[in-house]
């Protein structure tokens, strides 16, 4: 997707610190952190959101994104962390390329806003 912000990050056209990368996923710090630890894990190949991926042909992408997010959460926020996949307008998604937020380093509130 030529006009997608995260596709441009994956392609190296917009700079970001690569915290993890393999054939399926990439992880970067969030540019506007909402917690002391705030990472984003996204698929290398464009997908609009997790629901779109779940409806499509089954592949390993959803599992790879969430398992990488969990591993990075354990590593960067050993006290505990929250994984968030904002999906669609009401879900608060602002970048239409599937990503999981890894939030940690402080006590999380519930319910979320
Ligand atoms: P969401 O609102 O769930 O779609 O999350 C999008 C996230 O992308 C927000 O937390 C933004 O702070 C983050 N973001 C936007 N642009 C960049 C960027 N260039 N590098 C890293 N994170 C970004
Ligand atoms: Zn994209």
- CATH class, named Alpha Beta
By CATH, the architecture is named 2-Layer Sandwich
Question: What are the low-pLDDT stretches, counting only 5+ consecutive residues below 50?
Answer: none
CATH superfamily membership: HIT-like
Report the sheet-strand fraction: 15-25%
Specify the overall morphology: globular
SSE string, helices as H and strands as E:
HEEEHHEE
Number of domains: 1
Describe the protein.
The structure is a single chain. The chain has 113 residues and is of the alpha+beta class. It has one domain: HIT-like (HIT family, subunit A, 2-Layer Sandwich), CATH 3.30.428.10. The protein has helices at residues 5-10, 50-55, 61-76; strands spanning 20-21, 25-29, 37-43, 81-84, 100-104. Strands 1-2-3-5-4 form a five-stranded antiparallel beta sheet, covered by helices on one side. The mean pLDDT is 96. Zinc ion is lined by residues 1, 4, 6-7, 46, 97.
Task: Fill in the keyword field for this structure.
alpha+beta, binds adenosine monophosphate, binds zinc ion, 113 residues, HIT family, subunit A, 5 strands, 5-stranded antiparallel sheet
């Amino acid at each position: 997707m030529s006009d997608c912000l995260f596709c441009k990050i994956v392609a190296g056209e917009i700079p970001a610190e690569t915290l993890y990368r393999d054939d399926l996923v990439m992880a970067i710090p969030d540019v506007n952190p909402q917690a002391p630890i705030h990472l984003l894990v996204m698929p290398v190949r464009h997908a609009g959101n997790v629901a779109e991926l779940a409806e499509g042909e089954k592949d390993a992408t959803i599992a790879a994104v969430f398992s990488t997010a969990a591993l990075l959460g354990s590593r960067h926020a050993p006290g505990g962390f929250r994984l968030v996949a904002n999906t669609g307008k009401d879900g608060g998604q602002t970048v239409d390329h599937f990503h999981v937020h890894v939030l940690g380093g402080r006590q999380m509130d519930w319910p979320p806003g």
